[in-house]
Amino acid sequence: MAGSGLKWRAERGIVRRRDAHAMPARETPVLTVDDLSKIYADGTQALSGITLAVRQGEIVALIGGSGCGKTTLLRLIAGLDQATRGAVQVDGETIRAPHPSIGVVFQEPRLLPWLDVAGNVGFGLADLPRSERRTRVSRALERVGLAEHGGRWPRELSGGQQQRVAIARAFVAQPRVLLLDEPFSALDAFTRKGLHDQLLDLWAESKPTILIVTHDVGEAVTLADRVVVMRPRPGRLDETVAIGLARPREPVAATYEEAVRRVLAALDHSLRPAATKPPPTPETRASWW
Amino acid sequence: MPLLRRGGRAGLGLLLPLVLAAGWEIAVATGAASGRLLPPPSRIGATLWALAVSGDLWMHVEATLIRVGLGFLCGAAAGIVAGALVATIPALRWLIDPSLQALRAVPSLAWVPLFILWFGILETPKVLLIAVGVFFPVYVGVSGAIASVDRKLVEVGRIFRLSRFALARRILLPAVLPATLVGLRTGLGLGFLFVVAAELMGASEGLGYLLVDGQQFSKPDQIVAAIIAFALVGKAADMALVTLTSPLTRWQDTVRDSL
Predict the structure, then answer these.
(1) Which three-class secondary structure string do you get for B19-84?
(2) Which end of chain A, N or C, is less surrounded by CB atoms within 10 Å?
(3) Any bridge partners for residue B158, and if so which?
């Protein structure tokens, strides 16, 4: 699964734990991304050779500067856009379009303004019998602390509450894989902290596999088992930092600080276009100068 | 308290017309003005009362309402269908939208001679003229609303794998409803505008007929009475439309404000 860049680096002894994107062989991954590339119609290469495997219940944070294709990668995995090359699989099934096993929380809440909060949470459950739907919706609203707000309109909620509704809407469909695209970036630090806790509570219940895009190092270290750093032009995976801290995580702990420093170092490295860049492959060469 | 303030504000709005009417009444009563071209409010009121008592007023109102109603139904239906087709099928948009936009620029009264030539002077040209007036705001409202549906909300529908039909019913329809209702409301207003033109082209009943009749027989009180009846009927129709459709847009306070 290793790309040519890895081989190139390995020959020169500059392996920076790139193989950590892959997983221990004994575990079957829930989500696999294999050599995924995306070239837009105008010739821009957004992603190049992304290979990633995420195991059941793992939380992986994708971090990197703007323009390194984090959102593009998430949209390809979600089946909202088509890859130019490569494949995404969930439980061995190739993803070509939105799939019942994959839930998405976008950067904006994207609630339907003509449905009340409960209607929004139950939006994806239209096929279920009414009573079952109602039970699941009210349980999900309880989990995100909005049990009393089911009958309100989205516009009556604060930004943080709206995003909680969006998270409930994704969880209530019980996805195997949950994709979150900078879900908390528009919120203040205090609200964000509360949402981290609620997200982890929900995750602890059904243990979906989570892939979260963020550009907040603290958020990545708080939530993730692994932080994957991306670098731009074209977007590709750089280093992986394993966090390996027990939950709940305290931002004041020395181990937490140490993890933040490691992610920052990896991020810093990804922003330097120096010696570690892989040799240009034919399709990347054009966009490099 | 806010209710009282709102009532107070409405009362303030009534102050100017009431003062003007009272002033005119006094001016005519004291002989300062003749009131021959503009009768005092009391005489207009008396005319209106006489028309109502004799049943003539209801006959005219009914005739006008039937024309507006038929024209509104035809124009609105055509506007919704055309707007939906043009907004969802690009080829149709390129083909017919420019022509429709050009026709929209034609002043409505310019159609009158042509319609009379084609359809005579009976009901058909009247209803058609009103339908033309209603069509354009509905068409523009619907096609614009569909074209500007938030792509991000459509994506939510895709994430939950809605079929094309479910996407239309559960996302597109509610999303375009507010702008459609605004278009319908503008259309209804234009319908009342056009019914006057339609009835001026020759009618034996209808509020527009009262206007023409009042002009030909020099009865300014009847003209003003007809104008007042137009205002009342138009406002009542508008309020009826708003009341009937407001449950549909309960969720959107801005729509309710603009309605």
Answers:
(1) HHHHHHHHHHHCCCCCCCCCCCHHHHHHHHHHHHHHCHHHHHHHHHHHHHHHHHHHHHHHHHHHHH
(2) C
(3) none
Is the pLDDT score of B191 beyond 80?
yes
Closest to B156 (Cα-Cα) out of A254, A120, A284: A120
- Based on C-alpha coordinates, what's the Rg of chain B? 23
ipTM: 0.75
Q: Is the Cβ–Cβ distance between B67 and B191 less than 8 Å?
A: no
Please tell me whether residue A151 adopts helix, strand or coil conformation. coil
Contact B159 A80 (CB under 8 A): yes
Asked if residue A286 has pLDDT above 60, the reply is: no
Find the closest chain A residue to B156 by CA distance: A110
Take residue B92 and report the two structure tokens written for it.
């149709």
Identify whether the C-beta of residue B82 lies closer than 8 Å to the C-beta of residue B100. Answer: yes
Tell me which long-range contacts B20-28 makes (C-beta under 8 A, separation of at least 24): none
8 Å CB contact between A29 and A183: no
The DSSP line for A42-109 is TS-EEEEEEEEEEETT-EEEEE--TTSSHHHHHHHHHTSS--SEEEEEETTEEPSS--TTEEEE-SS-
Residue B252 with chain A: CB contacts under 8 Å:
113-114, 155
Q: Which residues of B touch A80 (CB under 8 A)?
A: 155, 158-159
Cα–Cα distance between B16 and B7 in angstroms, integer?
A: 16
Amino acid, single-letter form, for residue A250: E
Amino acid at B14: L
Window 50-79 of A, Cβ < 8 Å to B: 78
Where are the strands (E) in chain A, listed by range?
Answer: 29-39, 45-55, 59-63, 85-90, 93-94, 102-105, 177-181, 209-214, 226-231, 236-242
pLDDT of residue A278: 53
Domain boundary assignment for chain A: 4-101+175-285, 105-174
User: Please, is A212 exposed, middle or buried when counting C-beta atoms within 10 Å of its C-beta (0-12, 13-18, 19+)?
Assistant: buried
Residues in chain A, total: 289
For A4-101+175-285, CATH gives: 3.40.50.300
Looking at residue B233, its amino acid is: V
Q: Provide the 10 A C-beta neighbour count for residue B159.
A: 26
pLDDT at B245 over 80: yes
**Whether A242 contacts chain B with CB within 8 A:** no
A196: part of which helix (H) or strand (E)?
Answer: helix A189-206
Cα(B72)–Cα(B165) distance, rounded to whole angstroms? 28
pLDDT single digits (tens) B74-84:
999 999 999 98
Q: Measured between alpha carbons, how far is A143 from A194 in angstroms, rounded to an integer?
A: 12
